[in-house]
Amino acid sequence: MIYLQLFIEFAKVSIFCVGGGYASMPLIQAAVVDKYAWLTLPEFVDVFTISQMTPGPIGINAATFAGMKVAGVLGAIAATAGFVAPSLLLGIALAKLFFKYGNIGPIRGALNGLRPAVIALICGAAIDFILLAVWNVETLAGGLGNTDWTSLLILALALLALHYKYGVITILATSGVLGVLLGLIKTF
Asked: How crowded is residue 31: how many other Cβ atoms within 10 Å of its Cβ?
């Protein structure tokens, strides 16, 4: 039964996810953290982080890792299949339609209207992750009194590196090394 639930939940995410992997994160969170409590928010952030560090699309990686955490290898297969199948079929259908009718005004308008919503989804997920990473709170209601200065420093340096167009791999590797070094310094 858990395999079917994983397949269905990740299929729903796949169907309603517009904008790629980052936009899927709030939908995955709503299913695996909020609805079923298969993962805690810190576990979900860890899944997201691991999904960033591994090759492949982030949404598929997140589905695979979440499925693995919830129900082992078969859970990973069910969640991944659920995430991939609808988007594959929908992608093929939409590609055919877009190449045939993509320059029609209403289609172009719909695509332009979806862009701000996708950005809002990505920003919402980013805010949740920042609150958890830097202040270890899930909402602003708890206040921001417990600042993790190491995480805040790494966040600021990573944003600065993004501004100067450093590569994602360089930023991730440097942030990981910096986290280890600063963690070692804190223990002494």
From this structure: 21
Domain positions in the chain are 2-137, 148-188
Distance of CA 77 to the CA centre of its chain: 19
- Give 30-71 pLDDT, tens digit per residue: 999 999 999 998 898 888 888 877 887 888 888 998 999 999
Type and span of the H or E element at 61: helix 58-101
Instruction: Please state the φ and ψ torsions of residue 40, each to the nearest 5 degrees.
Output: -80, 165
User: CA 152: distance to chain centroid?
Assistant: 20
Helices and strands: H and E segment counts in the chain: 7, 0
| pLDDT, tens only, 92-117 | 998 888 888 877 888 788 888 988 98
- Crossing angle of the two packed helices 2-16 and 21-29, in degrees rounded to 10: 130
Interacting residues of 105 by C-beta distance below 8 A, sequence separation 6+: none
